[in-house]
Specification:
Elements lengths: L9 H11 L4 E6 L8 E2 H17 L7 E4 L5 H12 L3 E4 L11 H13 L3 E4 L5 H5 L7 E4 L22 E6 L9 E5 H15 L7 E3 L6 H14 L3 E4 L1 H6 L2 H10 L3 E4 L1 H10 L15 E4 L6 H11 L9 E7 L4 E5 L8 E5 H7 L12 E5 L3 E2 L4 E5 L12 E6 L6 E2 L3 H7 E2 L2 E11 L2 E7 L4 E3 L2 E3 L5 H5 L4 E13 L4 E10 L7 H16 L3 E7 L14 H9 L7 E4 L2
Parallel strand pairs: 1-10, 3-4, 3-5, 5-6, 9-10, 9-11, 11-12, 12-13, 27-28
Antiparallel strand pairs: 1-2, 7-8, 8-20, 13-14, 14-17, 15-16, 18-19, 19-22, 21-22, 22-23, 24-25, 26-27, 28-29
Helix pairs in contact: 1-7, 2-3, 6-7, 10-11
């Protein structure tokens, strides 16, 4: 089903909602222990209109790029909405704390400014102002989060002459290594994404979405904020920092707001299961949630099974567990677990998968069976195919490149014709992922550029995660895996880098030895190096993706600060 009117632009949909249901609930910002205070759409629109007037005074106008470099919250949401009301093209960038190192931010912004010629950049109040003031900006105004953005006219008109083919927003790719690319999204493609997702999930205005993922990632921006604002669905936002500090607040927030739909990467489900004491959930009920959507990274069967088992007593139902595959290039979600169904898990022959790139289903109790979780089926209007190296379709069960024929794809990578030509080939969008199909269901198995080749076997870094789950002392999900050319052996040597929970109390040599034994026993792979690092060393991208290639570069240059390196020749 399509919730909003077909066609049009984001701006016309906002206007339609304002006319149709001005007093309907639009936004709430959840903080554990505080009352839930809903903001009506009319209130949010008026607040954003005042901000739009302030942005206009600073020089932002229709068609301009405005960068917002702030944590997710009311301030960033209002600035985003204000920029959209002006008909500007927002580009949201992760603030320093979630980029990994503060020194990355000026470099990323300089790169983005070079490509976008943005007329306005709103920076965190804590940003080093001297660094940004020294950038020799001529046509760009710098503003800071603690500036007053409330002084604009509250009757700022919606941009009336924005056309469906105009650029509606820009989005950074995850940037797992090097500088991120910038996806260009048109208005009509954004609305195609919103309508496709709403139909696939059977969303309605009676739903309430709860989101702790950041606005600067497409899961937070498109799957939640833009979809809810344009379709009339109430949205609850929670700070990603609050989730990381106390994951149980996510589940309590779902209960207190009576939410029905929520999103998280796989690591979020693992974290809330690992760090939530069942005793604190005694008064929580999650029966109303019909969609726990797991997306943005590889989905592990064990993670979801543990989550379901841990919280079945408070109302988590198997049919509420859903999976999704998407990317910034497709403007959000592409494949979805169908309504009324639970996620699919296949057990396949690991040896044939690694050697032949073929997924042969075997009984679950087969020795060396490998569990692969399905990511759902394409939303209405979107087709999924698996292609070989020359672009021919592969049959079910054969692993190849994930390709989408989609109305919601990016137009280009801004200023990068070579990358655009690699991603858009004829009618297909090549996502850079590897997977296979089975009866229309996509099974994602890894990223093309991150695969490791060991004696002819193709290994994805995420294949190591279930093994590392079972090694005491390691932080779950906090690892990197990559291959280093071994000229003597004539193949790649595998390196595992993992954070430990507590560097002072962990027996590093014994832990490294156990990693080696587990990987050799379960995957048949001898490791070249195991590197154990302190907690917090392996920063992820803004969307929670692991930066395998980035840490490979750090390893090769000797820049990893390690607790132990246990190498074997």
């Amino acid at each position: 089903m399509t919730l909003g009117p077909s066609g049009g632009t984001l701006q016309t949909r906002f206007h339609d909602r304002l006319e149709r249901d001005p007093e309907g609930r639009a936004l709430a910002f959840y903080k554990a222990g505080r009352p839930i205070e809903w903001i009506s759409f009319a209130e949010f629109y008026a607040e954003a209109a005042a901000v739009a007037g302030s942005l206009a005074k600073r020089g932002l106008k229709q068609g301009d790029v405005g960068m917002i470099v702030l944590p997710s919250g009311r301030h960033s949401a209002t600035l985003l909405m204000g920029a959209l009301l002006l008909g500007a093209k927002p580009l949201l960038i992760a603030p320093p704390a979630l980029l990994g190192m503060n020194s990355d931010l000026p470099r990323v912004i300089a790169h983005a400014l070079d490509l976008t010629k943005a007329s306005l950049v709103v920076l965190p109040a804590t940003a080093d102002r001297d660094v940004f003031a020294s950038m020799s900006l001529t046509d760009t105004t710098l503003a800071y989060a603690d500036d007053d953005f409330t002084g604009g006219a509250t009757d700022a008109p919606i941009a009336a002459d924005v056309a469906p083919g105009d650029v509606g927003a820009l989005q950074l790719t995850s940037g797992t290594t090097g500088l991120p690319k910038i996806c260009v999204w048109t208005q009509e493609a954004i609305l195609a994404a919103i309508d496709g997702m709403a139909a696939a999930m059977e969303l309605s205005p009676s739903d309430i979405c709860f989101n702790w993922t950041p606005l600067y990632h497409d899961m937070g921006l498109v799957n939640n904020f833009l979809t809810c604002m344009s379709a009339g669905i109430p949205l609850v936002m929670m700070s990603p920092h609050d989730f990381i500090k106390r994951p149980s607040d996510w589940l309590r927030g779902l209960h207190e707001t009576e939410a029905t739909v929520t999103w998280a990467p796989n690591f979020g489900f693992a974290l809330v299961t690992e760090r939530t004491d069942p005793a604190v959930m005694a008064d929580v009920r999650l029966d109303r949630v019909h969609g726990f959507w797991n997306a943005a990274e590889r989905i592990h069967a064990r993670t979801y099974a543990d989550f379901a088992s841990a919280f079945a007593g408070v109302g988590v139902r198997p049919e509420s567990l859903k999976t999704n595959f998407g990317c910034a290039e497709n403007i959000g979600g592409a494949t979805f677990t169908p309504p009324g169904e639970t996620y699919r898990v296949e057990h396949i022959d690991r040896d044939r998968f690694l050697k032949e790139l073929t997924a042969v289903v075997v009984p679950e109790d087969t020795e060396d069976a490998m569990a692969v979780v399905g990511a759902g089926k394409g939303h209405p209007g979107l087709e999924v195919a698996i292609l070989d190296d020359v672009g021919a379709r592969l049959p079910d069960g054969k692993v190849g490149a994930v390709a989408l024929r989609t109305p919601s794809r990016l137009t280009e990578y801004l200023g990068n014709a070579e990358a655009t030509a690699q991603a858009i080939v004829g009618m297909w969008l090549l996502t850079g992922d590897q997977g296979y199909l089975r009866d229309g269901e996509l099974f994602w198995v890894g990223r093309t550029q991150e695969r490791i080749t060991v004696r002819g076997k193709k290994i994805d870094p995420s294949d190591f995660e279930p093994v590392l789950f079972d090694v005491p002392g390691l932080r779950q999900g906090c690892f990197a895996a990559f291959g280093i050319d071994d000229q003597v052996a004539g193949t790649e040597s595998v390196v595992i880098v993992s954070e430990v929970r507590d560097l002072a109390t962990t027996d590093l040599q014994a832990t490294a030895d156990q990693v080696r034994r587990q990987v050799l026993t379960r995957l048949g792979i001898g490791l070249g190096d195991v590197v154990l690092v302190p907690p917090g060393s392996l920063t992820k991208t803004s969307s929670g993706k692991r930066r395998h290639r980035h840490f490979k570069q750090m390893y090769e240059s000797g820049r990893l600060v390690t607790g132990q390196e246990a190498s074997v020749s």
